[in-house]
Amino acid sequence: MKKVAVVILNWNGRKLLEEFLPSVVNFTNTEIANIIIADNNSTDDSIEFLSSYYPTLEVIALPQNYGYADGYNKTLKLLNHEYYVLLNSDVEVTANWLDPLYQYIEQHTDVAAIQPKVLAQHNKSCFEYAGAAGGFIDKLGYPFCRGRIFNQVEKDTDQYNTPLEIFWATGACLFIRSSDYWNAGGLDASFFAHMEEIDLCWRLNARGRKLVCLPESTVYHVGGATLQEESPRKTFLNFRNNLLMLYKNLSENKFKRIYTQRKALDYLAALQFLISGKRPNASAILKAHREFRVIQKEYVKERDNNLQRTTNSPIKTIYQGSILYDFYLKKRKIFSDLKWLE
After folding, report:
1. Facing residues of 117 across strands?
2. For the domain with range 4-221, which CATH number is right: 3.90.550.10, 3.40.190.10, 2.40.110.20, 3.40.50.10860?
3. Cα torsion 220, 222, 227, 228: sign
4. Using an 8 Å Cβ cutoff, are 273 and 285 in contact?
5. Quick one: pLDDT at residue 283?
6. Against a cut of 0.90, is the pTM above it?
7. pLDDT of residue 225
8. pLDDT band at residue 193, thresholds of 50, 70 and 90?
9. Hey, is 212 helix, strand or coil?
10. How far is C-alpha 316 from the chain's CA centre?
11. Is the pLDDT confidence value at 40 over 80?
12. How many Å from the N-terminal Cα to the C-terminal Cα in the chain?
């Protein structure tokens, strides 16, 4: 059996499959990998398209739309491969994209997951928001990337072409050991979408496993193809899931200290949305906090389990500064300005 399963989760993405699946078929080394389409009960003609144009590809038809997290969980449970690649349907891969990732993780047994360099499909000279050249979080849980801080996206001038240990690897193209995936509990299905890969990566880090960005491999990502940028639904999921992630992975004392600060900062973000005429987004942030307070008690056992399996070593890829303070007050707009890690 081949060692790698490249799994594309699809929901009503016929047009995306038509545009981007050819690159996956043409540039994936099928001597080491199977290409598998998992369909989240699409109501468009995705299945018919695949049957007509890609009859040899394996298609797993799920009975309902489980979202990103549980859609992958239910699909991956059916597979027996040593490695999974969770690949978004709006990703264009490049020649020889898979082999460097495979070779690196084969040679580094302490690495649980790895990602390529992710550039913007609509502007291939720039990094892409969701992953860039590797993901990080700051001490308050705000995510950022090597190549992207908040909405400030850098041009790719080969400045981040060295492999680097990272905190989180993008869910747009996540190459992960199946053993690590399941040992860490897989993606959290209750997240539905957004932040779930960062939450998974936090659990991997906490268990002493490493994550790496390998820029030798490059892919192009559209981004926002499932939920449009700055949609209220996306705002809600990002803020709620970020709070859940913090609660699940921090001790009670640490969480309380951080939550006090986060609540104030998130309410400022809501005010900014309101001032800029985006009232639904402001309401989405308030709703995220309300829902978090209601459901956090459901995560007590999971949090206890996470903390019991955590090593005592500090996670060096958590930035101990405030990325908000650095970005808005110190005007450190690009990753290299932080003078951290590299």
Report:
1. 218
2. 3.90.550.10
3. positive
4. yes
5. 97
6. yes
7. 44
8. confident
9. strand
10. 19
11. yes
12. 39
